[in-house]
Amino acid sequence: MSPVTHSHHSAHATRIAYVVGARPNFVKMAPVISELRRRMPDGRHALIHTGQHYDRLMSDVFLEELGVPAPDHMLGVGSASHAVQTARVMEHIEPVLEEERPDLVIVPGDVNSTLAATLVAVKLGIPVAHLESGLRSFDRTMPEEINRIVADEFSEYLFLHSDEAIENLRAEGIADERMHFVGNTMIDSLVAVEERFRSANAARNLGVEPGNYLLVTLHRPALVDGPLLADVIARLDDVSRELPVLFPVHPRTRKMMESMNLKPVPAVWLTEPVSYLEFLSLEANARAVLTDSGGVQEETTYLNVPCFTLRENTERPVTVRAGTNTLLGLSPERIDDILPALAHPKTVTEPPPLWDGRAAERVADILQTTGHYASLIVG
Length: 379
Ligand code: UD1
Ligand code: UDP
Fold this sequence. Notes:
With 379 residues, the protein is α/β, with parallel strands linked by helices. It has helices at 23-39, 60-65, 82-100, 112-123, 143-154, 164-171, 185-192, 194-198, 202-205, 221-224, 228-239, 251-259, 276-284, 294-303, 317-321, 338-342, 359-369; strands spanning 15-20, 44-49, 73-74, 104-108, 128-133, 157-160, 179-181, 214-217, 245-248, 268-271, 288-291, 307-309, 325-327. The protein has a 7-stranded parallel β-sheet with strand order 3-2-1-4-5-6-7, with helices on both faces. A 6-stranded parallel β-sheet has the order 10-9-8-11-12-13. β12 (307-309), α15 (317-321) and β13 form a beta-alpha-beta unit. Residues 1-10 have low confidence and may be disordered. Uridine-5'-diphosphate (UDP) binds next to α1, α13 and α14.
């Protein structure tokens, strides 16, 4: 791509397309949209929602709480197999990108929508920026690992949230020039709403005592799409005799629990997914969190809440080094270790470098000072 050498008169207002589809995408993208809108009020900022997630509590509630304007394009792809879902996003997003003619497409994270949008944009010759680039679990049985590798390979701007990503990308032959260590935009979102969630009292509203419950969220296919899920529920039943368990259930997990007819004891409180502010409030006040979520490993690190991760690996080892996150393995029986572990005093941790609420500003700085955006974006 050659730098734009247009004179001031022929420079057009910068056009950016932001692609989101699944719950964590909204949280990662919101601060970037807001910062780029602020710096480029005359630019075109087109929000494309693929519709990978569509329940109100998996989608709209995030845009509302984070103050993101309604999407300009709703692709409505919905749920399907990997191939069908990815193909539908590709098919629906191509005409939208042709119509929008963006100078840049920004994609977050590692979901199927990320993969699909990247492939379509790059084949239309539109540069792509990838938020949360360079994470690797080194486990290619995870759909997210495939999605990340492709997004990183074809993106022009790789925005890194932790420095360990640098080595991961170098190992794949990616040049340092494409990498920009900006920090964690998911933490930007958290910081931006901190006063609101600190005063939300979500635990009390649900009838549990703040500081005295285990918060649970699980949705990885490797855990919930098979027999391990029954073992998890049995172990949670045991924990709940000593510590109440609060479990907002992801729709994938809900579907699996219903099909396997799994019913935990009443001290395991099952709820619908909760809103972003409610969830942050529940995380901040939890005695501990049990999860297989990527974002939750990060948020608990920032909040200094003990997190136990039911996975063999994590693409976020920075959270383990920080001291908040413990990998239990894909081993429900290790849920028994949580209560004894909580008897030990909590270590006080610092958030990882650049998890400071200002990552989106750095994204905007880089887009303004590198490549061909320098001449287009008026600061
Ligand atoms: C997706 C991402 C995963 C991410 C997670 C965040 C992929 C491959 N997976 O997993 O990386 O961690 O989102 O939450 O992109 N469903 C509903 N309502 C909804 C959305 C989904 O009922 O609004 C149900 C459907 O039955 C669907 C199932 O959940 O089949 C799974 O949804 P899908 O988007 O395919 O994958 P997730 O497990 O949500
Ligand atoms: N989250 C939420 N409500 C819930 C569960 C999670 O608001 O009931 C938020 C959480 O705070 C984090 C994001 O959703 O910001 C994480 O998304 P998820 O676990 O679905 O995806 P992952 O991070 O694993 O890709």
